[in-house]
Batch of 3 targets.
Target 1
Amino acid sequence: MKLIFLLAVLPTIPLAGAQTKSTVSTCKTAFSAALPPNSSLEIDARTVEMEIVGTDQSTLGVSCLLRNQNDGEKIRLSMASSSAVSKLQIRGGPRNNQKIRVEVPRETNLIVHERGGQIEISNVIGNKDVRLGSGDIVILPVNQKSYGVIDTSVRVGDINAPALGVKMEGFLRRFVTPPSPSGYRLLAHVGTGSIHLKATAVPSSSVKAAGNASPAAPGDK
């Protein structure tokens, strides 16, 4: 079935408050907004397959891969930006056959909460708080020197981190590294599903800007 990859740029609309801006659109057009490196970004989404990729750009970009072009206008995207934390919200659209690609500056602190689906984060340096009701979390690269603290847990499922010598499955599983006074913090939790921390990074040459990317079709992974 034909897949349609959609991309465009949005206007920024000032809101009340000196340091707050709002950017809104749908997946009929893709999403672009300023996001300086070392910012904190919170992503609030319902059940969806999401890929979050670090790039050398100083912007946030969102693009959608859909099986039906008409579904694009049903997916609502909004972002509220401030000096403290920016929040991206994704709502609506079909429950299946969609993939959201979010591109952020390589140095970005992430807070990502979803009800279900799959979250893959690659080449993003910073603190991470990733929580998923059901599904899979994949983060790379992760090794012994990547973070000061790594705290992962599943209610039912498995945790795999080969570079850290971790492989566990079952009920109420948790893996925590000894705390370090320096370094980033990685928190990952899944209700039912799996967590994969991989040591191999995606080559920088393969990380393309939004609009030139060719992500896998939903369900092809």
Target 2
Amino acid sequence: MLRLTIGDESVTSMARRVYFAFHYDDIWKVNQIRNSHIVDGCTAAGFMDASLWEEVKRRGKTAIQRAILQGLEKTSVTCVLIGRDTWKRKYVRYEIEQSLERGNGLLGVHIHNIRDQWRGTSEKGRVPAILREVRVPIYTWNRTQFGEWIERAATETEAKKPKGFLDWLFS
């Protein structure tokens, strides 16, 4: 089980493994979200040390795609962290496409309001076209609501999945 901390209240829920798709230029902001401990027990998938990312990039497109697929393994939700230039990144699009194919819950979160390493914020980034096309919820980073958004993305996607034969037979 997983304890979500929302405001001053705790809610018990199923454990969620969350894959984070983002533009690596936003890593400072992304790490603040990852290290916020809002969702206790949530494994933050899709994070790579800078040296590992550089090594994967040197090996080319296939290696990058393989690393993304490995990061997505055993995840139930993909959260696209939307910075100023996220919409331009082809591998963010690939991460979203693969998340949809897997049936992951999906949401987007603008991160322009999180301070960077120079204590500044940035302009609000454009939403990647694919997120608009599939009409996923888009939020602006809010520490008190983040865990709730993750859970909502998971449960709404689970509700849409086709039921098995026995579920259909006895419904």
Target 3
Amino acid sequence: MVAWWRPARPLFGLAVQHEKTSFRRTIKQDRSPMEKLRLIAVDADDLTILSAHCQDALTKLSECRYFAREQRFIMAMNRFVWEEAQMGERKGLARLLPLRRREYERRRAVLHFERVRHVAMSGLDPAAMAETVLSLLSIRFNEAEAPSGSIELVFAGGSAIRLDVECVEARLTDTGGAWSTTARPDHDRPDPAD
């Protein structure tokens, strides 16, 4: 049995079709080999959605660039594809059977901020950490005098990049390159250092 449905409210105009099959209770998404995600954020609520899609993205300081003259900050990253991971979760007894490891996906993406007046780093040394891998945990907006404020890119280990902006104007775009991985970020697991 095949049923087609669309989400009630498409995310930023992205209407995604899904194929549900009752055979082995699997869910497959009807996509081109790699449908690219493109999101735009123009307020704090949009930025929260963008943050969810960027959670656990991996980057390096050498892949972060601030163009002062253009007031632009760009960060290239390897994004964990949470929207695929959530759809393919196994249910019931199927999740207890370790017959086959679940495969997840990472994609190459770019996070792009406009109207950036100033960039500051906390807990990061550009000279020493240029090639250190950073894991992005969240993106927060702290409003100062509307619509301006600061956008904070929070990384694992307590480091952060703060962008002072005139207003929220951000884009997340998958640029190409996708690959599978069996490793899924786990925030419920206790820290081994504790």
